Amino acid sequence: MIAITGYGIICAIGNNADEVLDSLRQSRSGIGSMRYLKTRHSDLPVGEVKLSNDEMKALLGIQNDVPFSRTSLMGAIAIRQAIQSADVVLKGKRVALISGTTVGCMDVTEQLYSEMKSDDVPLSLPQYNDCGRSTREMAMIAGLEDVELCTISTACSSALNSIIVGAEMLKNDEADLVIAGGSEALSRFHLNGFNSLMILDTERCRPFDDTRAGLNLGEGAAFVVLQKDAPDAKAYLAGYGNRCDAFHQTASSADGEGAYLAMEDALSMAHLSAADIQYVNAHGTGTPNNDLSESKALLRVFGDKMPEVSSTKSFTGHTTSASGSIETVICLLAMQHGFTPGNLGWKNQIEGGITPTHGHNGVKLDHVLCNSFGFGGNDSSLVLSKCDEPSASEHYPNMEVVELACDEVTTKEELVALKEFVSPMESRRMSKLMKAAILSAFRALKKAGIETPDAIITATSRGMLEFSQRFLDDIINNGEEMLKPTLFMQSTHNTLGSEIAIRCKCHGYNITYSCGDDSEKWAMRDAVRQLKTGKARSVLVGCFDESTFLTDSICKKSGKPVYPEIFALTRVLVSKNNNK
Amino acid sequence: MEELIYTLKKQIIEALNLEEVTPEDMKDNIPLFGGGFGLDSIDVLELIVLLEKNYGIELQSPAEAKEIFTSVRTMAEYVMQNRKK
Questions:
Q1: pLDDT tens readout for residues A414-473
Q2: By CA distance, what is A214's nearest residue in B?
Q3: Which of A191, A225, A461, A574 could form a disulfide with A578 if both were Cys (CB 3.0 to 4.6 A apart)?
């Protein structure tokens, strides 16, 4: 089984595991007034990490004045703690660092954006929109050498999916040790994005409360060290599930199908029944939609045997892409120290909703479940177990992988063909890359004669550049007011994979890699792993990228070749027995 | 009023990127959401932005907007009474 041998955490309620533990036990929330993020919406409550960037640099012993992203700084702090707590020597081991993030280095991009748009772009200016950059930076700061680097971006479930991919790599003998988790700093970009969706509460958030009115954003990072069959485990990763709600880009389905399936998968892999789970750390964002939908999913899984449930976002705020690993570490602390964290601020029962716990001390937790859901319905769930119960070892059939079909869209002119699959009314909000992705995906599926693949894996090296830039422009030009939610919705890297899932009703495994030029390699590797191990019999792999006037001009000025305006390549892979 | 309705239609088509729709296609009383015109919850948010940008009307929540956005006519009536610019 996969052992968790170390962990590190930094978030609004503490700069390390001890401080976080203390805040949890004292019911001390970290949500409060904004101190470090400079925004017009400074009246919104947030869960900021209580350190300036300079203080973090001092903590890390960085003496130069390189403008490192806050995401990278927090990530490096959590990684160092994780390695220290695992007390392992990395040298001589095959090590991978997998980080989940969506905003990545956006805090730096925001500061440099005007410079990027000016005529004399400094040649040293990096392409900050690649969220893999934060992973490369944190590896460098944390002093990780000869380590495989991977970045996963499935919006708010990114960090949990990093842990899942890390576990799969270990089981498949692709690494000896994996450091997995996520990091996300507050940025004006996503604060304004969530604001444009009208899901930020102007008061402190109240997850699962009838009067809940939205979420408070938070920030932070957490990483765990994963090893196969290690003796000194803090706990074991007994099961996990990654599923797609396949319902809507920013809303969860009424019956929480994706969440339900993810929890069921996690329990089934752990060989546990619902009654074995003693605590659930819910996703519980505090939005009217999430908490009702998650309640329904929890009731479907647990029925009248509901364990203690709490959302710790009332402590940390919603730390978005980092929330999955932050809450995994909170679960580990709860298991090690025998308590359940309370659901702060809860007073009023939701009709048809779950009743969260106020928290207890002196409880023995053997099995806990941790939920993490993201935009696009990227829903994931973990089961953590205290003891390594001998479970039937997973038998991998080692299937052969075949490419069944392939389709490519490389020019804007080809997009008229989209009408075959999507009506103009339905495509009204789609960016050009979204249209290209959908067109290539559905043409490839048609060629393959497959209506719904078992899994959808996408790769985007630089992400949704057009809409991200338009949103940044609007933030600057409109003074952070009256921003278009459509632009924000399609700025997340996983929006393409989840739109394909919504359109072909695929509730299976769904993940997005965004780590620069390595993205396609990681996506293919995952697809082959899914097929070889028999987890999926058909996988859609999409590689989607675009360029904009701005990225072209940056490339030209730095003497690099420009990227194509649009590039969408979809492959449909199947395992051989399925190839009839 | 009729002029405002026409202007609103043009603004809605632009804000929601309804490429193949003309103001003439959009009947004054047809329900914008649900079975009628087929708009959804994200369009509600876009229409809230539209009202603020063009008429200085600040709506606090999608729930509040629901009745106002029943049809182009109800929207126009609300704009007439509440516009700040």
A1: 999 999 999 988 999 999 999 999 999 999 999 999 999 999 999 999 999 999 999 999
A2: B61
A3: A574
How far A376 CA lies from chain B's nearest CA (Å)? Answer: 14
- Catalytic site residue A318? yes
Look at residues A281, A234, A283, A223 and name the one whose alpha carbon lies nearest to residue A11: A223
Nearest by CB to B53, from A424, A429, A482: name it: A482
How many CA atoms within 13 Å lie on the side-chain side of A416?
1
The pairing of beta strand A339-340 with beta strand A147-152: unpaired
pTM, two decimals, is 0.96
**Which CATH number does A2-385 carry?**
3.40.47.10
Residues A133 and A129: their CA atoms lie apart, in Å, by 8
Q: How many CB atoms lie within 10 A of CB A249?
A: 20
Task: Assign domain B2-82 one CATH number from 3.30.300.20, 1.10.1200.10, 3.40.50.1970, 3.40.1390.10.
Answer: 1.10.1200.10
- Give the closest-approach CA distance of A562 to chain B in angstroms: 29
- Kindly state the DSSP code that residue A412 receives in the 8-state scheme: G
- The class (CATH top level) of A401-578 is alpha beta
Domain ranges of chain B: 2-82
Q: Do A485 and B53 touch (CB under 8 A)?
A: no
